[in-house]
């Protein structure tokens, strides 16, 4: 299973093509729209979220509520394009220099300058339109398909905020998927700790007042994965490696950790590794879950827990200094419409990115062109490892 996305932030639309989904998976626009609308929520989001109403058009690969086994084509229209036709239209223009909103001052922390150097763009709008985090809407659409597949296999996934601007949420290790999901959706910052959530809201408001931005840490929790998904035999088949790469590819993400993560470097082995136990009802399990449900590149059967670090958004309303690439003179960087904090939305994006990697690994391990046969294969595998 794989996906490709296309489209620019202020272009006509975002397009996602998902290939490799089995036939007869139940799938409707509601399954995808729920995720897209959740992505637009969160305290600290900018005006763009008030302009767009992200709803998907399924234009291929689904008929009468079921996938066909052929590529699934998804379209998200950009409502704001009507205000950008002259700037972002595909037809040639007589005088490109006359087109408004040319960007010649790269923003520190963005892809602007590096992308301009790589592709030879004098107008860096050609870079920032594609490198924009708006592209994550297309990725969430792909991840929503994966989430639906996982849910039908009794595998559930949720993302939420752990930290914003140094304000850390209390750990709730005993919370189930249902509890994490319902609490995070009810929180304006997708945080499980109501006390920390209130402090996070205040920090976001202060950052906005200061013309600044703040980042944080988000966590994704996956319940229902059987042991043995992934592989130890080659570097590119290790599930933790795949997930880490996918998470690091999300805009503004700068770190990934599993379970207790970097804390493991400061602890003895006896406080890091998870002891193995067995009972007749469940088979093998771990007494703790410090390694986040992964050992040797494979799932252990315990909940998978992965964190991602998001830096503050680099588009600032009190911009950092930059250099105009035309005059080479120092100037303040260009200002584009932006959020003061996108950490809550990033939790939702990461949830869907992780979902896609897990679904992909499952389909590689249990290859089936028809979804009911995949369900049967997973059911049989769960029973095999339970009595192993």
UniProtKB/TrEMBL annotation:
GO molecular function, one term: chorismate synthase activity
Record's keyword annotation contains Acetylation: no
One GO process term, biological-process aspect: aromatic amino acid family biosynthetic process
UniProt pathway: Metabolic intermediate biosynthesis; chorismate biosynthesis; chorismate from D-erythrose 4-phosphate and phosphoenolpyruvate: step 7/7
Keyword NADP included in the entry's annotation: yes
Cofactor: binding comment: Reduced FMN (FMNH(2)).
Residues annotated to bind FMN: 130-132, 251-252, 296, 311-315, 337
Described function: This reaction introduces a second double bond into the aromatic ring system.
Descriptive protein name: Chorismate synthase
Native source species: Terribacillus saccharophilus
């Amino acid at each position: 299973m794989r996906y490709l996305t296309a489209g620019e932030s202020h272009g006509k639309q975002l397009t996602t093509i998902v290939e490799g989904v089995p036939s007869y998976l139940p799938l409707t626009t509601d399954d995808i729209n729920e995720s897209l609308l959740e992505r637009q929520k969160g305290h600290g989001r900018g005006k763009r979220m008030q302009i767009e109403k992200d709803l998907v058009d399924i234009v291929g690969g689904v008929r009468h509520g079921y996938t066909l086994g052929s590529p699934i084509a998804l379209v998200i229209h950009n409502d704001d394009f009507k205000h950008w036709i002259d700037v972002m239209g595909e037809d040639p223009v007589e005088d490109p220099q006359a087109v408004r909103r040319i960007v010649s001052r790269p923003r520190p922390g963005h892809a602007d300058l590096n992308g301009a150097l790589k592709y030879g763009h004098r107008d860096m709008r050609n870079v920032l339109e594609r490198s924009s985090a708006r592209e994550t809407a297309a990725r969430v659409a792909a991840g929503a398909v994966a989430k639906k597949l996982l849910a039908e296999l009794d595998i559930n996934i949720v993302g939420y905020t752990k930290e914003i601007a140094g304000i850390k949420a209390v750990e709730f290790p005993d919370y189930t998927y249902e509890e994490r999901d319902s609490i995070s959706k009810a929180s304006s910052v997708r945080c499980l700790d109501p006390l920390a959530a209130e402090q996070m809201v205040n920090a976001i408001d202060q950052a906005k007042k200061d013309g600044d931005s703040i980042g944080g840490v988000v966590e994704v929790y996956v319940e229902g994965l059987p042991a043995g998904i992934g592989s130890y035999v080659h570097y590119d088949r290790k599930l933790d490696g795949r997930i880490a790469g996918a998470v690091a590819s999300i805009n503004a993400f700068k770190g990934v950790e599993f379970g207790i993560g970097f804390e493991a470097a400061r602890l003895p082995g006896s406080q890091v590794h998870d002891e193995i136990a067995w009972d007749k009802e469940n088979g093998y399990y771990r007494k703790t879950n410090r390694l986040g449900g992964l050992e040797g590149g494979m799932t252990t059967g315990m909940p998978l827990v992965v964190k991602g670090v998001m830096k503050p958004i680099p588009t600032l309303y009190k911009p950092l200094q930059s250099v105009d690439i035309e005059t080479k003179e120092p100037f303040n960087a260009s200002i584009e419409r932006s959020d003061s904090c996108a950490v809550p939305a990033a939790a939702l994006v990461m949830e869907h990115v992780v979902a896609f990697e897990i679904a992909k690994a499952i389909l590689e391990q249990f290859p089936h062109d028809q979804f009911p046969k995949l369900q049967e294969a997973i059911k049989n595998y769960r029973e095999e490892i339970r009595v192993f």
